[in-house]
Amino acid sequence: MNDFPKMLICLLPLLLPGVWTGCRQAPATQEASEDGKTETTEIVIEAEDFLASQGEVSVQTLPTGEQYVQSPPGDSWLAFEVEVPVAGRYRMELLAGAEAAGPYAWVEDYYDNQDGRTYNITGNMQLPLSGPEAAFGSVAKDGSPLNAGTHKVKLHLQAGPAKVDRIRLSLLRQHQLTPNHMTQNTSGKSWKVVWADEFEQDGMLDEEKWTYDIGNWGWGNNELQYYTERRKENARIENGNLIIEARKNDLGHAWTSARITTRGKVSFTYGKIEIRAKVPTGRGSWAAGWTLGDSYVDELSWPYCGEIDILESVGYETDDESGNGKAHASVHCGAYYFKLGNQPTSTLEVANMNQQYHTYALEWLPDGIRAFVDGQKYFEYTDTSTPLAWPFDKPQNLILNLAMGGGWGGAQGMDESLTSQQYIIDYVRVYELE
Fold it and tell me: Is position 312 annotated as part of the catalytic site?
């Protein structure tokens, strides 16, 4: 509305918590910048300042002179150009309303990208109910990744009509550079452990090794869970295991869970990586142990940064009684990924995945990538011909997570009787040859 500037970007030192300098101070956005100072970042976009649109949208003016956008029945969108000053993970809050249940919104980033991709960085946001006098409610998603720079974004309004006041972006966590890169020796006759977490000490994670990813923006897959931080109900070390637990109807979210990464701590190039684990079997669960290129900042980074899936398991492929299911291994890169229809992947039948530990391993050498379960090789990728096909000569971070729903985990729906699921990891080890 007009009591805010049309585009408001504020960088406020938290050493001066009472300073407003013409803008609202963003909540819970305390992050250290590269120069060691702490900043608050908030970006406010007034809906009526859209640069392009689809559908018969109109700008309405209230008796007070304040303005908002009215969308028509059906689907429409508003396009904006947003300057993001700080790379990081953001809360995307929408002030909007609908007079009847049904309309929802989502935010698309880089709508002009060269690959023709659709980067949904919020997942669907159900619009709050409002009265005919243009009252607005608030709906938000946390954790949306945004690099510093200019972003061409669209606010998609589905199943309207709806009324939109503004979009507010608040920095939750500044992007963390990884200070320690380990390049493993790739010649020799035997494997030697060079980095590991054995999860022997009961309690919380070792934050010298791991960072928590946070939020519920859908993670590019329309997933249901909110990833929490430092919450034992979702991630804890117990009896020599890391337990990542997804919990239904928790903290006001459909699901909570945990996703931990070595980003910001340590990254790896080459070597052998082992994950010894038990995976859940519930329909809708999606357990993973994988690597992601350290150069990832936001969705435009992928798949060019590279990704290696050491273990993926979805519950609908696993028998609830026997625990027999499937392990998946894949790579993703600029030359090979789902949009091109040529993603390299393999599947292996594995017995008793939820009650018996299995060792899921990756051997990553300069001549290729190979995946194993309990020593049995079932995946190999050897195209090192171009940078698009082989970004795997650069550092990757380790990630462990348990998702619920989404494009793959929820492909056959959710078992509504589930209230929790557990992904149990005995250890994670990185080796080099000697």
Answer: yes
